[in-house]
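To: structure subgroup
Subject: Chain for Friday's discussion

All,

I'm putting the inputs and outputs inline so they're searchable in the archive.
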Amino acid sequence: MTDSAPIGVIAATERGRTAAARLAAAWPGRVRTFTEDRAGEALRAAFAECGAVVAFLAVGAAVRALAPVLGDKHTDPPVVCVDEALQHAVAVLGGHHGGNDLASGVAGVLGCQPVVTTASDAASTAALDSYGADLGFAVADPAPLASAGAALLSGRPVRVESDQAWPLPPLPPNASPQTPPESAAAVLRVTDRTAPPCAETVPAVTYRPPSLVVGVGSARGAAAEEVGALIDASLDEAGLAPASVRALATVDVKADEEGILRAARDRGWPVRVFAAADLAGVEVPNPSEAVRAEVGTPSVAEAAALRAAADDGAGADLVAAKRKSANATAAVARLRPRGRLALVGLGPGARDLAAPRALAELHRASVVVGLDQYLDQVRDLLRPGTRVLASGLGQEEERARTAVGEARAGAAVALIGSGDAGVYAMASPALDFAGADIDVVGVPGITAAVAAAHRLGAPLGHDHAYISLSDLHTPWEAIERRVRAAAEGDFTVCFYNPRSRRRDWQLPEALDILARHRPPQTPVGHVRNAARDDERAVVTTLQAMREGGAEDVDMYTVVLVGSSASRTVAGRFVTPRGYTWRSAADETVP
């Protein structure tokens, strides 16, 4: 199921129709409601016409209605059933192909409990039938999946083989490349090669990664049959699987060559086109001056394959050199996979304030890097087999280098911190070291400042500035200039790292600077351990803070100082938005 796929919703009762309306409001443009009296017929219609189905029916009724039309688990749409009391959203079909996610989505909208019964999810392990699916992997033959999955879940030794390192989710410790072939109860193999290294005596699941690009050149008017036969022969001779081809590539002057386009279309491959000048700079083993004279580059097939594969990966290797027919040339390149680095902010501390996407990235990562105390908060979320690399305070650079290094080695890495990874956290040092040879994703998180602000009231209602008072990495002179500029600009100011055992004078100094531009009764709030069990929040004034109110502040505290417009309303710290509010009665309708 994709985000654009229509969702058929079966609602046979008034309560079901009301709930269906809630789903439609939450997912505008995606929900198609079936309200026919014959629920079974409506369910079968939705099953045939939609990309996913939500049925406000009993599971048994849904199963009986769908049994005659069920096909293949990989192609049937996912189905979720919701009970009449709206207490449970049960993933009935297609759990690993969108059903489990749909159940969670429905539960999130309706406030009910998702029910997931697939064995791998219950054991918090990767599902073999969708392993690597987000990377474009395809299962060569689904027949061994059930037996291999049973071996994996039962803890029996499973051998893992792979041509290259891909940023895949973790597998349990009993699945390992170090498992000897003779003791393996099953084999999981990631390869773009057609033949296994030896005859299989145990269930072996073969995954086809999208690792290959076929480069093609042809004379004008070359037949699709000739181009296709040459491609097939090139792959077959090199022992490469067509299912691992991600694209066909050629030069721009051949962009309208029907023989090339049809050969790609017949095989379900997209076509990538490059300018001759771009291909001319690609080093190839078999250049041709005759080709240069004709199209402006000494190589089409080899250069286009290498260029497309390198663009999609961390580099490329030619695995099938140029092969010719009477009117065409073909070559095959293999990309080097890019590792994956997720920069994850866990929020201010409370589990329910961590973004669902952040939790999903932790579940997705095979390596998690972070401060030891933050890792302790999330160990229960990690899948079995996840490698955890912890370090202590003051080792930020080491953590950043470690995370980037693991991603460069091909792993799926999550580098974690509190709050938002991009605000006084690990994103900036990591990105200082990260190059174009890895993929980087960022997950927004609720910062300590935002969590503290909501605890205090609305202190950030207008323009505001964040300033760290730690002079470990920034000279105090620079910090002082920033505080003075914020004071003169009349910003609400949020101070991070305000005070520690060894740094006890910076906060009073900063408050003195602000006091030169603020009235004594300016609201000040400070929150320690925002959104955690031992949270403590105080609303006071600038004068009181300067007269000793800063004694309770430490490195776990965020301090917010209002602008000249900030005020206290019913004990809450408020900074007005700066508008002149008018009631509806004041508006003049022309």
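Points worth raising on Friday:
The domain at 449-574 is CATH 3.30.950.10 (Methyltransferase, Cobalt-precorrin-4 Transmethylase; Domain 2).
The two ends are 50 Å apart (CA to CA).

D.
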